[in-house]
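Milestone M4 deliverable, item 7.
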Amino acid sequence: MRYTPFSTRRAGCRAVLLALFILLSAAAPAHAAALPDALVPIGVTAGIRLPTDGVTVSGLTGVETAAGSVYPARDAGLMAGDRLLEANGRPVRSAEELQKAVSGGDALTLTIRRGDETKEIRVTPAKGREGYRIGVWVRDSMLGIGTLTYYNPKDGGFGALGHGITDDAGGERLLSISGGSIVPSYVTDVRPGKSGEPGELHGRFEPSKVLGTVDKNTEGGIFGRMSASPAAQNAVPCLPAGEVRTGDAQILACVDGETARTYHIRILKLYPDDENLRNLLIEVTDAALLAKTGGIVQGMSGSPILQDGKLVGAVTHVLVNDPTRGYGIFIENMLDAAG
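Output delivered:
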């Protein structure tokens, strides 16, 4: 089975069959915790599987009946992004449970959450060619490919992506998850980026072999636990944000197969107080990477950034009109997001 990345104009992940997440990060967390002695920079891709916390409306559609197309959900007031909590007072935890509630054809009272508001919507299913439907596309899980940033050999913690995954096309709401897992992946090919059209990694992954669990989805990345690092790199010190400088640096990225390689970049500018966690403006200078991908592509989000042999941060965004450039997050901010 083939999957593409989860992401947005960011460099990292896109859910299969779902719109790109255009992610906007919240304010940068305060630097409260001391940096760990050393972390293993990873740089390999992984399949990321996230069961969502409930059922979310991802789109509205018509129901084809004998009398023509009707739109029960739309006309009742349902909107993309609504989270379905109950149907006639019974919890809705999966797409299958929603379909079971709809299948009898009786009018339903749906309890939904829209933003911070909980409300009830009355909708009557319509009989279409395949039985009763209300005309919604819903999701109860997500699958995609992203890049693992670091592994902590002391406690088994890992971080990936360098940004959060959202549950709406506007990228304003973090996806509420109920756990998750990461599995090995293999990059099969790359669609290179060009001005106005970000490229992306394509790959496959093996869902039967679990590398670790996902516990958190935050503005600074996704985090969890693994039993061992999936990469052969040695642990390196972390560089505090205040010691990062402009100039030559490297990224670890996997753009072919399942092995991360080192590529040269330059750190052009530093934005230590950026509220969207875009702390580093970087430029790809490596001829081999430019020839392969055109620069930064979706799926590379989370690729570790190193300077002077120390872990600086992770790639997070690609500039749409110049794929040779993008943004990154300080490792200090990423670790603060991990808690």
